[in-house]
Every structure is written in structure tokens, then in C-alpha cells.
Amino acid sequence: MIQKVEKWRIQELEQVLNRLASLLRLGENYDWASVFSHFALEAKRLAIKDKLNLDSLKRLVYNIFNCFDGTSSLRTLVLVQENTKQMDKLNQDFRESISHLFDIFASIEEKWTDPVN
After folding, report:
1. How many domains does the chain have?
2. 100 - beta bridge partners?
3. Residue 75, domain extent
């Protein structure tokens, strides 16, 4: 088995995590914003290494994924702003970013290992 997770995919993960942290800050969810900033930093650390530490990547994905489990407030979180139109846009951006995050997870997970012929 060989790994085929591209470095750019981990960089994309970092960008989405930073985007989520930013949206959470805008929605005044500073604790969650800190969590996602931390995850982004971990992704960055993985991306700058010459050789990918697959165990660390799996642990990071697992930890992020757990933030969205059935008992997490993050699943139903509504970001708040005084202006209703801005709030609607913020929440739409937040949900789209989460969707993008899960697309990245799917892409990374399918490339963790690839059978060698």
C-alpha cells in the first residue's frame, strides 16, 4: 500500500479550516473559532513537512469530524449578527464551508491508501 494524499489537498484543508474559524469569529463563536484555528495550524504543520505523517493526518481528520457528531452543538449552530441579511449570508457561507470540508475529507480518505499492483 502506498499513500497518495497530495500536499495541496492538505493545504486546501488548512484554508477551509481557517475560513470556518473566520466565519465562527464573525458569528461571535470564539471558542469554536479557536478550535478551528488550532486545526488549521495542525494542517499547516502537516503540509510543510517533506514527508506526510499519515497517522497525524488521520488523527486530525478524526478530531475535526468528531466536532460534527450527533451530540455536538456545532451541527445545529446558527451564527448571529445584528443585520438579518448579513446573518443569513454568514450562515449560508458557514454551511457551504462545512460541506466543502466534508468533500475534502472524502477526497483525502479515498487516497489514504491505494492498492499496489
Report:
1. 1
2. none
3. 7-110
Between CA 103 and CA 95 the distance in angstroms is 12
Strand positions, DSSP E, 69-108: none
Q: What is the CA radius of gyration of the chain?
A: 15
pTM of the predicted protein model: 0.90
Is residue 1 within 8 A of residue 117, CB to CB? The reply is no
Decide if 116 is inside a domain. no
Residues 1-22 have pLDDT tens digits of: 455 788 899 999 999 999 999 9
Residue 32, C-alpha cell as written in the block = 469554536
Coil, strand or helix at 95 = helix
